Amino acid sequence: MNSTYVHEVKLPPHYDKNKQYPVIFALHGMGSDERNMLQLMEPLSSDFIIIAIRGSLVQGGGYAYFQIKSIGNPVRELYDASVQGLQQLIMELSSQYAIDPEQRYITGFSQGAIMAMTLALVMGDAIKGIVAMSGYIPKFVKEEYTLQPSPNLSAFISHGDQDHLFPLQLGEDNAAFFRVYTDHVTYMPYSGGHTVTPELYSALQHFLRTNALVTAEDTKGMNEA
């Protein structure tokens, strides 16, 4: 694998390469790292393959996927490079591990949420669902990228009503934008700031488990038909 992205993989207990598993690609916020997201996704590790990906740019004591000119205004060249690089890595890892191609999920917080939403918009049927916590969709993505999200995409979008970095309106805008493309949008405004609250933590786990279970049952039904 030629990817420049450091990543950590946690396989379910009794992992069997001859089976297929749902996967969560976990993307961190600016200044954080892959270990933070791996820890956050730990309660789901018995049911999913968890792959936490580190941004390729050094940011303070952590890392980033892109730099910004100002809030809401990413450096376009760095942003484009990360979108392309993460797409490539997701597909490479999908062939390396026993990943169900119908059950690829991306979770992200802050900058990771920004990337998760963008990847879902451009990768089509390759992405089954996303959890986007406290992010936004850059204007140039909406206006200049080729958008082809799956109509079956399940999107869980959350935003704190006291977020000091990104106002709540951005979360509402994110949900409205995805509703143009899919009927499967869950929007959760919550009481809190730019952080993952216990309420949000419980809700995102329920969303991922429920969606993976439904997908698995649908696939089983198709195979038996």
Number of helices: 6
CATH topology: Rossmann fold
Q: Structural class of the helices, strands and pairings?
A: alpha/beta
CATH homologous superfamily title: Alpha/Beta hydrolase fold, catalytic domain
Q: How would you characterize the largest beta sheet?
A: 7 strands, mixed
Q: Indicate the CATH class.
A: Alpha Beta
Instruction: Encode the helix/strand succession as letters.
Output: EEHEEEEEHEHEHEHEH
Overall body shape: globular
Q: Give me the Rg, rounded.
A: 16 Å
Helix fraction, binned, reads 25-40%
| Oligomer designation | single chain
Q: Would you identify the regions where 5 or more consecutive residues have pLDDT less than 50?
A: 219-225
CATH architecture: 3-Layer(aba) Sandwich
Q: Order of strands side by side in the largest beta sheet?
A: 1-3-2-8-9-10-11
Number of domains: 1
Alpha carbon gap, first and last residue? 38 Å
